[in-house]
Amino acid sequence: MSFLKKSPWIIHYDGTSCNGCDIEVLACLTPLYDVERFGVVNTGNPKHADILLITGSVNEQNKDVVWQIFNQMANPKVVVAVGICATSGGIFAECYNVMGGVDKIIPVDVYVPGCAARPESIIDGVVKALDILEEKRVALARRRRKARKARPVSLTNLF
Amino acid sequence: MESILLLILFPLFTGTILLFVKNDSLRKIIVRLAALILIAVSLLTTVRYFNDGLTLALHREWINYGMVVIESILAIVIIALSIKHKKHLPILLILIQTSLINWYEFTHSHEVEIKADIVIDRFTLIMVLITGVIGSLICVYALNYMKDYHHHHQEVKDRRPFFFFLLFAFLSAMFGIVLSNNLLWMYFFWEITTLCSFLLIGYTQEETAVKNAFKALIMNLLGGFGFAAGIIYLGYAVGTQELNQLPVLAQSGIDLLIPAVLLAIAGVSKSAQMPFSSWLLGAMVAPTPSSALLHSSTMVKAGVYLLIRIAPILGFNVAGILVMMVGGITFLLASLMAITQSDGKKVLAYSTISNLGLIVACAGIGSYESIWAGMLLIIFHAIAKSLMFLSVGTVEHNMGSRDIEDMHGLIIKLPEMALMMTIGIAGMFLAPFGMLVSKWAALKAFIDSDNILIVMILVFGSAATLFYWTKWLGKLVAVLNKIERIPSKLTFDEWIALGTHAVLTVVICFAFPLIGNQFIEPYLNAQFAVQMDAVISDGNIKIMSMMLGMILLIPLGLLGFVALKEDRIVTSYMGGVNQGDNRYFTDALGNRKKMYLSNWYMEKYFSETRLNTIGIITTSAVIVVIFFMALGGVL
Amino acid sequence: MTGSTLSVLLYIFVGPIVGGLISGLDRKITARMQGRYGPPLLQPFYDVFKLLSKESIAVNGIQNFFIFCFLIFVVFTGSLFFMGGDILLVIFALTLASIFMVLGAYCANSPYSSIGAMRELLQMMAYEPMVLLTAIGFYVVTKSFNITEIMGFNVPLVLYLPGIFLGFAYILTMKLRKSPFDLSMSHHAHQEVVKGITTEFSGSTLAMIEIAHWYENLFLMGFIFLFFVWKMPGSWLVGLGACIIMYFIEIVLDNASARVKWQLAFSSAWIVAAALGFTNLLILFLMK
Ligand code: SF4
């Protein structure tokens, strides 16, 4: 049984946006939608998170930040781009410093359309992401087992 | 007998030789050899007198006259130095004191019958061991430290022969204090330690050093004055000048209140309690080995040694309340003030003052349990504090700073020193290490004495202790980038001194039940003429040993942990703007900024000046009020 | 002896299950108070198992080891408690355990975890006097530090120690990491210092912290229990009831208040300890 699917923890990052999607993401946590029903927690810390939820596009300033946050997440992890800005740059695409969608910097697993994306579709996107997460977990577990077999525990690892 | 002479005279002899040795390597050989001999003699003395102890009367006129002569010479030295530096108060104090005691010695002291000039019991042996072992190790450590010191401080005149002379002379005096039962003798050695401390603080001859040296001198002379007055009062009014007679006399109903108060003042000033505490902080300008030897592990212990000796006549009279309150207030305030300090040596100074405060409070309560705790505290504190001082000294020489903020990441910078300090700090406050065991016993004793105020003080004081030690420990274990590593230059002597201290700190924790029932309890049983249950029960001792065992397994566990680890190393979280090496981040303008993590010092809450004023006022008030109460009670 | 061994074994093996359930219930009740449906009761277990299956990441090679020690010593402390050992020793062991956690956060050397560590340390300084006073109160009344003997007293201790009980309840909020005193970290999402002391820990290490907290919460409630049991055979029901009510109050408080500044948390804890603890002890001494 996979516990990963029952306890997806999220980190939410907001890039160049109008903050519309940003607010919608938070709306998911309100009593009306209450994503905690599914074990979703908004951690605000990449090291605890399984899902990186990005609203808004990436620009020259925040591209390193996005990359670093993604890198600091423990595997298995997935990225959900929420809103048109995050998927392609949206209305900001033509701005002088905007690079475009999040996938310019990091691999995106799920694209959630909308301007702003509705809470229902955000939740839907997260649920889609869970399946991908599970696949990644299985793959990771297999890789780990192999690695362990290849490298028997010994004190030589110390040095 | 011979070993006693050896203990007192041999260090003096060595010191005198060292006074004329200018050659580094020769000094090295002599000091190492002397240290070995001293340790051996201390151990032998312990074995020799363990069972029977010793009471010895030496009715030799010339000894007394010799002491008078030396005392006068000391007085002249102090007067000359005071004139040179244009200080007047010390001249006055030393003149009054020396003339008083000499006058007494010539007029009355013959009429007082002395049954024992020297007494060795188990408590004496504890002190002999501490002085012999810790003291010798510090002398060995000083060898290289002082060489380095003069290398770094070219402006200070190299007076190393004199420095080592003082160290060894001090050891003689310290042995003298703990061995003598005749109060006049004790006073004599007491004054020598005062002078040694004075000269060592002023070693660099810089302005602050001289100022602080005189401050220390004045405070200690004030205490010495109390001592002298106490002796004279005892001689005239009670007709004794023997330390071990005091409890006996008190039991037979003789009123000893005034001498108790006077001697208490002497003890309190020597052990740097408020309102006298400022001298110990000032003493930190001295080179670290002397801080370690005099101002933390041994000399200040002379004060509490005296107090614990007279503890049976303290208890619930006003003298006891004086000692207890002064100790308690000092313990609490000094621990709070330690929070605001970032200078490693100053933290150690405050922690010394506060721990001595706890011992003093234990002595003031004067019950079986509290003295048990106090004696244990003396032992643990001497070892762990000395280790801390030596470590700070070494770190200072390797890094050029002794600020705790600069020790951030010491585990990477100087791993071996970080380990030493970790052991030292753990020894200072953490279960199941020594200091905590004794604090535990102290807590029990305080509750059983039904003194609620002192219980509250202990409870809050230990919380503060926990805070400032842990934040220091936290600084040490922060793991930095590998490139910040510093090549260490630890020498053989330093390794020996530090290593032995560290091992002792740990071993003594396993051995404390043994120390308890071999040294402390026999002494107390004789003092109180009762047989008491163990202060800390066997079951708990077993659990403590188990914890200690678990803690000792930690290094092993760590090895296994590292061997098994499969961690992916990532950068630390800095809101996504870590520059990739965990040391720099990108600021809002895109610039590279160094990350700097500071501890909390909470100066607004525990401001040094404010707490100091409060402490000085309350403790002075306590002392003055009780002094007059004692006088009034007699009139 | 067998009784105490049994309870230690129960604590070690059943403890985390109970602790996890309490934590699940806590989240459920919290959600209901906020008008939400809330996660399933078993959610804390899902979280922990998930964390165990994740990749292990760290800033350096040894930070996680401190947390391992933290867990070990928390379990040790709890066992000591349920063995009916010396209550002072329990407190000292708990301090040792907490220090390991603080050191782990320091070791990671990151801004957020360091602030968290500092705050945690401050909280430790804030609650330590009251915890000690609680043990002292027990001792003054029952003449023993031994937990078994404390439980065997003639009347419920809370009758003698109302002040100390209130004081302990006050600092219990800190120990349970509930608002308004959840300075170093809390179980709620998204705080001003990220996740405070646990920021740099993830995967199985975070799971260890979580499990340690379950263990910890259990014997913290045990302290409350001690105030309400006495010699009477069925009295453990009263103790249990008291624990439940106490925990419920903590949840209400958690939801009804915002995090305070450290200044207030610290000074109020000391003032409460000094005022309530002192008065209560004074009265006890006078009654003697
Ligand atoms: S997609 Fe639309 S609503 Fe969302 S951030 Fe962009 S502009 Fe705002």
**Which regions of chain C have little confidence, pLDDT < 50, spanning 5+ residues?**
none
Order of helices and strands of chain C: HHEHHHHHHHH
Number of helices of chain B: 23
Order of helices and strands of chain B: HHEHHEHHHHHHHHHHHHHHHHHHEEEH
| Helix share bin of chain B | over 70%
Structural class of chain C: mainly alpha
**Approximately how much helix is present in the residues of chain C?**
over 70%
Broad shape of chain B: globular
- Number-wise, the strands of chain C total 1
Mean pLDDT of chain C: 88
Task: Describe this structure as you would to a colleague.
The complex is a heterotrimer of chains A (159), B (635) and C (288). Chain A has 159 residues and is of the alpha/beta class. Chain A contains 4 helices and 7 strands, in the order E-H-E-E-E-H-E-H-E-E-H. Chain B contains 23 helices and 5 strands. Chain B has a two-stranded antiparallel ribbon with strand order 1-2. Chain B has a two-stranded antiparallel ribbon with strand order 4-5. In chain B, helix 1 (2-19) packs antiparallel against helix 2 (24-49), helix 8 (207-238) runs antiparallel to helix 10 and helix 13 runs parallel beside helix 15 (344-365). Chain B is globular. The mean pLDDT of chain C is 88. Chains in contact: A-B, A-C, B-C. Strand 3 of chain B pairs parallel with strand 1 of chain C. The site of iron/sulfur cluster has 13 residues of chain A, from helix 1 and helix 3.
List the keywords.
heterotrimer; A: about 160 residues; alpha/beta; Rossmann fold; 4 helices; B: about 625 residues; mainly alpha; 2 domains; two-stranded antiparallel sheet; two-stranded antiparallel ribbon; 23 helices; 5 strands; globular; binds iron/sulfur cluster
How do the strands and helices of this protein lay out in sequence?
The complex is a heterotrimer of chains A (159), B (635) and C (288).
Chain A: E1 9-14, H1 20-27, E2 41-42, E3 51-55, E4 58-59, H2 63-71, E5 78-82, H3 83-88, E6 98-100, E7 110-112, H4 119-150
Parallel strand pairs in A: 1-2, 1-3, 3-5, 5-7
Antiparallel strand pairs in A: 4-6
Chain B: H1 2-19, H2 24-49, E1 54-56, H3 61-84, H4 89-107, E2 118-120, H5 122-152, H6 160-179, H7 183-201, H8 207-238, H9 245-251, H10 257-270, H11 278-282, H12 288-297, H13 299-309, H14 318-339, H15 344-365, H16 368-399, H17 410-413, H18 415-429, H19 434-448, H20 452-477, H21 492-528, H22 538-564, E3 568-569, E4 584-586, E5 592-594, H23 608-634
Antiparallel strand pairs in B: 1-2, 4-5
Chain C: H1 2-33, H2 43-53, E1 57-58, H3 63-82, H4 87-108, H5 111-142, H6 147-151, H7 162-175, H8 203-228, H9 235-256, H10 262-287
Helix pairs in contact in C: 1-3, 1-8, 1-9, 2-8, 3-4, 3-8, 4-5, 5-7, 5-10, 7-8, 7-10, 8-9
The structure holds iron/sulfur cluster.
